[in-house]
């Protein structure tokens, strides 16, 4: 039997829920009768219109919270807000990630290394996740099976890196994997019923991957709906000794 086979009346939190994979998780979990409450975070109102529109339709199940994971005070405030309504979380999925922005793209060579951009990659892809682990821990300190998952990327695997390039993205995702692996060990002592994992979603048709889709074979480019279904299947099939592991969308373990 999988670790969370008996999920019922569960509370979920999706971080980075305004678009892409995060928004896909919200839509799918709203239809899941095992999930009681969903807390969905977004960074800016202007890019969260679709998510916020769902709150009128699902007022009893969906709560949206403005939160930037690069600001620890905002994380503290969001967790305090959630804690006034519930005292435990069962499924948390951190979907926040940065690959490119208007002002920068992933580096193709050492010539393009820029310390400010590197810091930004780490702030969003690595440090934000471990701040979540720090402040969400009290809501995982209960006796029911729970999962804290972060969306990582196969390019963050040091063992798998054959192509080079993308210094900041690769390194920040490798750091995410190490931070979550380390958090998994502490969670194992503090809240042993919670599994901490990182997940590679595959190449998904989102804003993050759009500039880089040309070289992806059509059968390897997943719709958001397919990615979400695949990742939820991986989560549902986790076993008690899987905490601290790095899984691909098909359930296989990825090298560090």
TrEMBL record:
Pfam families: adh_short. GO terms for cellular component: cytoplasm. InterPro entries: Fungal_SecMetab_SDRs, NAD(P)-bd_dom_sf, SDR_fam. One of its GO terms (molecular function) is oxidoreductase activity. PANTHER family: NAD(P)-BINDING ROSSMANN-FOLD SUPERFAMILY PROTEIN, SHORT-CHAIN DEHYDROGENASE/REDUCTASE. This is Short-chain dehydrogenase/reductase SDR.
